[in-house]
Amino acid sequence: MSPLLHFIASASLIGLLGTALADLWAETQKRLLKVPTPSWPMVGRWVAHLRHGQFTHDSIAKAPPVPGEALLGWATHYVIGVLYAGLLLAIFGIGWAHSPTLLPALAIGIGTLVAPFFILQPGMGAGVLARRTPNPKVARLRSLAAHTAFGVSLFVAALLLNGLGLMPRG
C-alpha cells in the first residue's frame, strides 16, 4: 500500500470509528444524564447556507430550512472527524496509528475546540466562545467535555482497530 493510501485509510478508519464512539458517549449522556447533544441538522443548515455566501446567522434555527440538512449535518460531522484524525496522524506521525497513546489524541481532541468556539458557534448565532447562549460557561464546558471525549475516542478507536487487526499496514 502506498504511503498516501495508508495515511488516508488509517485516518478514515480512526476518524469514522472515533466519531462514532464519541457519538455513542454523547447519546449515553443524553439518555442517562439528560445532557443535550449537538443538533447536526442545524449544522447541515449552516453548511448549506455557506454556498450562498452566508457565513453567520443571528440564529441558525430561524434560518430557512434546507432539504437534506440532517444528512448534510451528519455527513459533515463525520468528514470533520476523519479530517481531525488526519491531523492527528500528520502531527504525530503514521506510527501513532499502530502504537496509539492517549496524550496525542487528547491534545487533538481538545485542540479542535478552536473550530466550534471561533467558527461554528459564531456562524450559527451563538457568538464567539458561546457568549450569546443562555449560559456561556455551561456551553463551553459541554464543548470541552465533548471534544475531550472525542480525543479519548480517537485513542480507543486506534486501539480497537489494531486489536481487531483492521489497521491498514504501509
Would you write up a description of this structure?
This protein is mainly α and 170 residues long. It has helices at 3-33, 40-50, 69-92, 95-98, 102-111, 114-124, 136-163. 70% of the residues lie in helices and 0% in strands. α1 (3-33) crosses α7 (136-163) and α2 crosses α3 (69-92). The protein is globular, with a radius of gyration of 17 Å. The model has no long low-confidence stretch (mean pLDDT 97).
Summarize the structure.
70% of the residues lie in helices and 0% in strands. It is mainly alpha-helical. The longest helix has 31 residues, at 3-33.
Please tell me the overall pLDDT: 97
How many strands, what sense, and barrel or not for the largest sheet?
none
Radius of gyration, CA atoms, in whole angstroms: 17 Å
How many β-strand runs? 0
Question: What number of structural domains do the residues give?
Answer: 1
Morphology: globular
Class by SSE composition = mainly alpha
pLDDT below 50 for ≥5 consecutive residues: which ranges?
none
Strand content: under 5%
First-to-last CA distance: 5 Å
Q: What is the H-and-E element order?
A: HHHHHHH
* Helical stretch tally: 7
Secondary structure layout:
Layout: H1 3-33, H2 40-50, H3 69-92, H4 95-98, H5 102-111, H6 114-124, H7 136-163
Helix pairs in contact: 1-3, 1-7, 2-3, 3-5, 5-7
Key structural traits:
170 residues, mainly alpha, 7 helices, 0% strand
